């Protein structure tokens, strides 16, 4: 499991303590803005719960305390890093544990709140993340790769809020701010289910999601107040921390929570494990499928691939936000097994590298085949592999580019000089023929089309949707062929 902390908790600390949380992080800028004297405030609220951990994060370091301590005696002071800092600095911090450097830990010229404590764990705190969207996704994949490269160290990522990032990419430590709040502390009347699906208050009582409320011991129809919404978020995070990556479906338990004598929720709410059924036997509910068919909603090539694009997500207990489908018979079961993760971002990153590597192998094999003057069946087999991997990659990056049963790769320059790539056709030979035809249509004579050009087209499959990169590649190919405009 991930070492889970709660972020900026001054508006929900009592609920968090009731739900069993004992680790709280704060960014110093937020503390100053809220005008709290943190230690006194925390002691008032946590006195009945024993020792509670507090981490204060700032550019000078992340100081960890217990609530019985003082500002002058942190239990650890971890180095911090933001995306504005030098990348090499982060790599150095992951390679070198400052908590084992006696000189750094005993430097009297550094205030105790900023000085590492000798023997502290090897942790680096990363905060001030890029804004949500593609930039954040790319950054989180970089964090994952660093954590894999330096397993002896611990990356603590502060400020992520997607469950797929918090619990689905292999991070060791994170903090979480309930979806009821924005990072500025404003209420947005939103919850998150254990699956990672976010619901605005208008959808909270939608019966399609009742199974997920039952799972965390909440009575769906009683959820009305901000406190209720916060409790849903916290229980969902607790469940996801244990189970987000598991592919075993569950059988819903009856709710064990609900009102308790008008004095709030019963805090003994969640089973340590849910009731499981074999994933080998799990299929989507027949009743739900019949209802969908009656409404004219049929499964298409875009469904049972990624959870977020699947029309069946409301019927599926294997749904996870930001993940690929692991329902029996779906194309992505093997991908999840091969990459050891359900995260679509993780699989997409790995698959793009695989496509690039196999494209290089294919180019070398095609050159050898041409030199030998005879058809090599291994080349045909490899080209099919590249083709299949490319199709799956495109569906992960942008499912709308891979809909339908026929697949063909079309490469060219459209209106406004923008490069375009589409996938259609199922024959690897047709794939190669189409690439050559589209390059010819782009103004490059067939006798000047090189293996490098074909390799470039194959590599572009790993970056479908990134129009500027494709435009640059095609312009370069024209230049090589001597036909640049």
Short description:
This protein is 38% helix and 12% strand.
Any overview of this molecule?
This protein has 485 residues and is of the alpha/beta class. The protein has 16 helices and 15 strands. The protein has a 9-stranded mixed beta sheet with strand order 5-4-3-2-1-9-8-7-6. Strands 10-11 form a two-stranded antiparallel ribbon. It is globular, with a radius of gyration of 26 Å. The model is unreliable at 253-284, 401-431 and 461-473 (pLDDT under 50).
Into how many domains do the coordinates divide? 3
Number of strands: 15
In order across it, which strands form the biggest sheet? 5-4-3-2-1-9-8-7-6
Mean pLDDT: 75
Which CATH top level class of the largest domain fits? Answer: Alpha Beta
Rg: 26 Å
Find the structural class using helix and strand composition. alpha/beta
Which features does this protein show?
TIM Barrel; 16 helices; alpha/beta
What's the topology here?
Elements: E1 3-7, H1 13-18, E2 23-27, H2 28-34, H3 38-46, E3 53-58, E4 61-66, E5 76-78, E6 80-81, H4 87-95, H5 102-105, E7 123-126, H6 134-149, E8 154-157, H7 163-167, E9 173-176, E10 190-192, E11 198-200, H8 210-215, H9 226-243, E12 250-251, E13 275-276, H10 286-294, H11 333-339, H12 344-372, H13 377-397, E14 410-413, E15 419-422, H14 428-441, H15 451-460, H16 467-480
Parallel strand pairs: 1-2, 1-9, 2-3, 6-7, 7-8, 8-9
Antiparallel strand pairs: 3-4, 4-5, 10-11, 12-13, 14-15
